[in-house]
């Protein structure tokens, strides 16, 4: 888990969730889990004279090229392009098919909380986009590995808890959180092939398997609704 402290805004968002310690919770990432990311990013990059080629790893860094060049651009430029992508497109990323329906079903049996890594300036716009697509749940805007934010959110939590995420580093950062069930899921098949698998996670190939896995764990715990099993 990250040694750095959470920033004050992230801590405030965690506190605002008001998580009940005796109720199950499903914590869910956004990019390539709830919203498409790679396809709209590729469109943006093409519009500004760049391209994305994910050849051997799941990172953007080292895989973005200026049009006509075979030399990847510097990491700082990738970061700047990513921020400009969010500035333009954070409210127009298409939802992943089945995501809203799956969360709606799970919300009958557990609290749903969304955690996302993106520049804090775009947090309110991401919240609006989630609301428009039927996923109006508490949002935590994080930076860096998500384990520390998850540990803060789940401190003292006694009911079943789940974390749905595509990227290895965030799942591994959460590995020390006792009782947290992790689900690794990436909607884009290119990313799913390249992303490093987390040993502490159940690997789902879509929202159907991911939701069924969570529902089965809730069944085992006797949690038929968000208020059951207390």
What does this structure look like?
With 230 residues, the protein is an alpha/beta fold. The chain folds into 2 domains: 8-36 and 93-220, HAD superfamily/HAD-like (Rossmann fold, 3-Layer(aba) Sandwich); 38-89, no CATH class. It contains 9 helices and 8 strands. It has a 6-stranded parallel β-sheet. Strands 2-3 form a two-stranded antiparallel sheet. The chain starts with 7 loop residues before the first helix and ends in a 10-residue tail after the last helix. The model has no long low-confidence stretch (mean pLDDT 95).
Oligomerization: single chain
What percentage of amino acids are in beta strands? 5-15%
**Average predicted local confidence, pLDDT:** 95
Radius of gyration: 18 Å
**Which residue ranges are poorly predicted, with pLDDT under 50 across at least 5 consecutive positions?**
none
Tell me the distance between the termini: 31 Å
CATH topology of the largest domain: Rossmann fold
Overall 3D shape: globular
CATH superfamily of the largest domain: HAD superfamily/HAD-like
What is the number of helices?
Answer: 9
User: What CATH architecture of the largest domain would you give?
Assistant: 3-Layer(aba) Sandwich
> What's the total number of strands?
8
| Biggest pleated-sheet summary | 6 strands, parallel
Into which percent range does the helicity of residues fall?
25-40%
Number of domains: 2
Helix-and-strand structural type: alpha/beta
SSE arrangement, N to C: HEHEEHHEHEHEHEHEH
């Amino acid at each position: 888990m990250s040694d750095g402290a959470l920033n004050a805004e992230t801590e405030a968002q965690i506190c605002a969730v008001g998580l009940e310690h005796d109720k199950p919770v499903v914590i869910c990432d956004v990019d390539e889990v709830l919203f498409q990311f790679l396809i709209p990013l590729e469109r943006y990059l093409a519009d500004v004279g760049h391209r994305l080629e994910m050849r051997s790893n799941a990172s953007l860094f080292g895989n973005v090229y200026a049009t006509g060049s075979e030399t990847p651009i510097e990491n700082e430029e990738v970061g700047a392009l990513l921020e400009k992508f969010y500035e333009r497109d954070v409210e127009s990323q298409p939802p992943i098919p089945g995501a809203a329906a799956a969360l709606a079903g799970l919300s009958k049996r557990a609290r749903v909380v969304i955690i996302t890594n993106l520049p804090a300036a775009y947090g309110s716009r991401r919240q609006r986009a989630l609301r428009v697509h039927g996923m109006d749940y508490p949002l935590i805007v994080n930076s860096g590995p998500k384990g520390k934010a998850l540990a803060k959110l789940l401190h003292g939590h006694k009911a079943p808890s789940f974390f749905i995420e595509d990227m290895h580093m965030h799942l591994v950062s959460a590995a020390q959180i006792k009782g947290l069930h992790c689900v690794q899921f990436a909607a884009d098949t290119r990313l799913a092939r390249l992303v490093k698998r987390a040993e502490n996670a159940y690997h789902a190939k879509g929202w159907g398997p991911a939701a069924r896995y969570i529902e089965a764990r809730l069944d085992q715990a006797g949690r038929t609704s968000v208020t059951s099993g207390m």
